[in-house]
Predict the structure.
Amino acid sequence: MEWGDDIYTAFKDAGIDQVAYVPDAGHKRLINACIADNDIKAVSLTTEEEGIALSAGAWLGGQKCVILMQSSGVGNCINMLSLIETCRFPFVAFVTMRGQWHEFNPWQMPMGTTTKLALETAGCLVDEVEDPADVGAKAAAALHKAFVGQQSTALLLNQRLVPVKTFGK
Amino acid sequence: MSNRAESFPLHRRDVAKTILDASDETLFVTGLGSTNWDFTAAGDCARIFPLWGAMGGAITMGLGIALAQPQKRVIVATGDGEALMGIGSLATVAVQAPQNLTICVFDNEHYGETGMQETHTASVTDLSLTAQGMGIKDAATITDDAELSAGLDAIINGNGPIFRVIKVRAEPLDFILPSKDGVHLKNRFRANLLGDNAV
């Protein structure tokens, strides 16, 4: 999951101040890099929708915040994304996908198969990346789209990028 | 139906004005919905970001501002129903422990915008104890003018995070509405705080 380093580099290049996250195996390397960085405020959330409002607040206060979550967490965010759409806050989520590739847990399929549609319905511009070599460039593009282009964006990190979970089965 | 809240001595419009007038510097997020009307009545201004939606988001929105502006006092003023919908936010605030964040829950024990149905605080839920359990050590309940006067300095200047439940009377009041144009509200807040170039 060295691609996490490429996203971290994109964060530093874009001057990201706050990184909100819900703990996630796919984002583990990136989360740890952000926690270790004294210039980034890493904010652990109890639910993903907190991060939407946090991100808007950071922008009101003059900072840039991004959100890391899993596809299941996108489902927790839908009404809160109305804040982003109505006020046209810049927004960017990095979403590790489940329900796409060697998924062993059927409970991950509903959000895994509808994440893109759900985000687009909520006014978000969605891009996806499957090749680890493209992650850094696509992350930088998403950050630019959000904070320079002032758009609501998400980059979906295909499940082929994250470790296959089995719970020993 | 018990309605003890109709006898609470504090009037929410007076509380809002007392807190707003206590400092020229404080930044506010006001939650959906009665706290919006209270602070608009008290003096609509660019230091206030009123939420017309995003129910459950007021506290973490205030946290985002507080982390970005550690030199400024940020006060989240919201209702009991709105706070309950984002109750996990209190744990998130407690972990971050911003010294400049105060959360004031105007608790009338009812959902004011939807027909005055009782919230959970009308019967068994104590939000001050909840905040303490979440890890916000300085959490207390204010029930009358004397307690508000004595506690005002802590709300404005105290070492945060600070959480106050302010028990306010359940009463019918006129709607005093701020702008509902979210882009305008965002831009006026940023221009006031960060300068015209921020818009």
